[in-house]
C-alpha cells in the first residue's frame, strides 16, 4: 500500500529543486540555486551603488525592494540548510505518523483531510506567487510603453528588474537572452518563496492533524470509564502521542525560528521602501501604474508575513484543544491514581506550542496586526511630510 504524505507533489518537486529534499543531488541543487541568487544580487547591488543619488530616490527604492527580497530568500535558504538535519527528522516523523494511521480508519481520515488542505494551499501559493511575479515584471514595460515611449525618443532598453551588468547589454540577441533569463529567475525566486511558505503551513497542518487524533482518543478514554474499564493503558499511549507532538512542534520551531525573525526585520524594511514609492506615485503622472505595481509587491510581502503569523497562531490555538479535551474527560469518575495522571497532562498542555521570531516574540495575528498598523502609520507620516 502506498503511504500518503502531507507534502504535495508540487511542494516536494520544489523542495527537490531547491536542494532541501533529502537525496544524493541535494547539495548540487542547493549550491546551484544559491549561486544564481548570489550572481543576481551582485549585479543588483552594482545598480544600487551606481544610482546612489538623491535625484533617483524613487528608482533606487524600487530596486531595493527586489534586492531585499532576494537577500531575505538567501538568508532563509541558508538557515534551512544549516538546520537540514532537523528537517530530515521532521520528514521521518511524518512518514512514521502516516504508517501509524494506516490501521486506524478514523485517524487516517483526519490526517487525509489535513493533507488535502495542505496540498490545496501549497498549489494555490505557487500559482499566486507566479502570477504576481509576472504582473510585477510587466509593470515597467507598461509604464514605458504608455508614457515614456510616447513622450521621449528613448532607445535605451530596460530589463524587467533594476540590474546592471559590467558589459554591453543593449545589442541583440544578448539583451533578449538576458531579459528571458531574468524573467525566469524572478519567477523561480517567487516560486521559491511560495515553496517555503507552503512548507511551514504543511508542517503545521500535519501536527494539527495529530492534535485532532489525540483529542479524539481522549473521548475514547471517557467511553472506557463509562464501561467501567481501566484507562491506564490508554493514558500511556496518549502521553506518548503528546510527547511526539511536543517534539515535532519543537523541531518546527527550531527550523523556522530564525526564518521568522528575518521575516519580521526584512518586512519592516521592505514596507518602508514600498511606502515611499506609494507616496511618490500618488504625486506622479505615471502613478496609477506604479501604484498597481507597488500594491502587487506589498501584497506578496504581507502574504509572507501573514503565512508565518497564521502558522504560529493556528499552532497555538490547536495546542489549547489538548488541554480542553483532557478536561472534558470524565476525570471525576476515575480512580484517584488516574486523576493524578490527568492533572499532569493538563499541566503539560498549558505550555502552548508556538513559533517564535528568534525566541523573542510569538508569531501570531497580534504580531501581524502590529506590522500592518506600523506600515499604515509610516505611510500616513510620509503623506503628511511629502
From TrEMBL:
It is found in: Cell membrane. Keywords: Cell membrane, Membrane, Olfaction, Receptor, Sensory transduction, Transducer, Transmembrane, Transmembrane helix. GO terms for molecular function: odorant binding; olfactory receptor activity. It is a multi-pass membrane protein. GO terms for cellular component: plasma membrane. GO terms for biological process: signal transduction. It comes from the Eukaryota. Belongs to the insect chemoreceptor superfamily. Heteromeric odorant receptor channel (TC 1.A.69) family. This is Odorant receptor. It comes from Cardiocondyla obscurior.
